[in-house]
Design goal:
CATH superfamily of the largest domain: Gcn5-related N-acetyltransferase (GNAT)
Enzyme class: transferase
Keywords: Acyltransferase, Transferase
Largest sheet: 11 strands, mixed
Distance between the termini: 49 Å
Protein name: GNAT family N-acetyltransferase
EC number: 2.3.1.-
Radius of gyration: 21 Å
GO molecular function, one term: acyltransferase activity
Number of domains: 2
């Protein structure tokens, strides 16, 4: 059911993603292009539509001025009007898609959408209305390959010659000791996708973290994106084979120019060959040849990201909270835990101890 509200100078229609018209989808993309922001697949309407098929509370606020759309704000709505970014927890770029020059008051927008709060964990830079409510700024490393893979490897050698040399040596050893190495950039291999999910689930359990693939909506979302033919947001499965079997794989959404590093995993039996890094270098080469300009590695620390990145983007974590009962419920449920994570993350020794404790929990769980 369509919900209508007013903002100063704007009319707001709140729709389900499947209620957006073809003209809306076209306008959404035109506004995004006009803004000059990267063509990130997470901020394409196809991603919101896919999430809407697996998360019934997904909605889109269509902001209109003089009868024409000037912006789109996708969100998920839960109990007590508590809102969250679309695909929170797995989406690596979040925010509103606004025509340049449009200014918003975040709390007024939430009121127009019937929300008491709106939580984000990867708000993209430039979203001033929401960034003012951020609790933390995070680095999100990216790899720039728009100048070609050869130019990228020149930069990589200059920064970390040993890393590249060692990874290529491990690939040769993998071929000698396991079997012929073969890479498929755009694989249509359901068995390899199942293997990836199993490896990733085992990694989550081993490190004491929540298994994302135990959540049905995430598994279904991966399936929908894998079937998508949308050029601005479709799932890409890349697989590294050795001796005729998968040893590493990655699945993530891509647009024409941006690829998101989303779910990478590898067979632990081949860990000594670093098949994940071999896969990633092969992917970067193929992606550069396919017109990808940026590979977004996502926020969160990892040694391999530091080795591969060319620069960092800034993303933000936090929540817009209105002074209403639902907003208070959000604060009590989320902010103390967020503050504790931030306290640990900003203290390397404590963060290391916490990581080791999680791994021990994972080992005990698997016994």
């Amino acid at each position: 059911m369509t919900q209508e509200a007013e903002l100063p100078g704007k009319r707001v229609l709140v729709l389900r993603p499947d209620e957006l018209s073809p003209d809306d989808l076209k306008m959404w993309r035109e506004i995004r292009t006009e803004s000059g922001a990267p063509a990130n697949p997470f901020l394409d309407p196809a991603f919101t539509t896919a999430v809407g098929r697996v998360r019934p509370g997904t909605r889109v606020a269509v902001l209109q001025h003089d009868g024409s759309p000037v912006g789109y704000f996708p969100f998920e709505r839960g109990s007590l009007g508590r809102g969250r970014a679309v695909g929170l927890g797995v989406s690596d770029s979040q925010g509103a898609v606004l025509r340049p020059g449009i200014r918003l008051d975040a709390r007024r927008l939430l009121r127009a959408c019937g929300l008491s709060s709106w939580e984000f964990d990867n708000l993209e830079a430039g979203q001033e209305a929401f960034a003012a409510h951020a609790a933390e700024e995070l680095a999100s490393p990216v790899v720039d390959i728009g100048e070609g893979f050869t130019r990228y490897t020149e930069r990589l050698r200059a920064k970390s010659a040993g890393f590249l040399r060692q990874t290529l040596a491990k690939e040769r050893r993998l071929a000698r000791q396991v079997g012929e190495v073969r890479f498929v950039y755009d694989a249509r291999d359901p068995a390899a996708l199942r293997a990836l999910m199993e490896w990733k689930s085992a990694q989550y359990r081993r490190t004491g973290r929540r298994d994302r693939f135990a959540q049905e909506w995430i598994t279904r979302l991966v399936g929908l994106l894998g079937e998508s033919e949308e050029p601005e947001c479709r799932g890409l499965l890349s697989v590294l084979y050795a001796g005729g079997r998968p040893v590493a794989a990655h699945f993530g959404p891509r647009s024409r120019t941006v690829l998101s590093w989303w779910f990478p995993a590898y067979d632990r039996a081949c860990a000594k060959y670093s098949p994940g890094l071999v896969l990633q270098l092969r992917m970067l080469r193929a992606a550069a040849a396919d017109g990808i300009e940026t590979v977004d590695l996502g926020s969160g620390p990892a040694r391999y990201k530091e080795s591969l990145k060319t620069r960092d983007l800034r993303v933000y974590e936090g929540a817009v909270v209105r002074p209403v009962p639902g907003g208070a419920a959000h604060w009590l449920a989320r902010e103390p835990a967020r503050a504790a994570r931030r306290f640990v993350r900003n203290r390397p020794l404590l963060a290391g101890a916490a990581s080791r404790a999680l791994e021990e929990v994972g080992r005990l769980r698997d016994r």
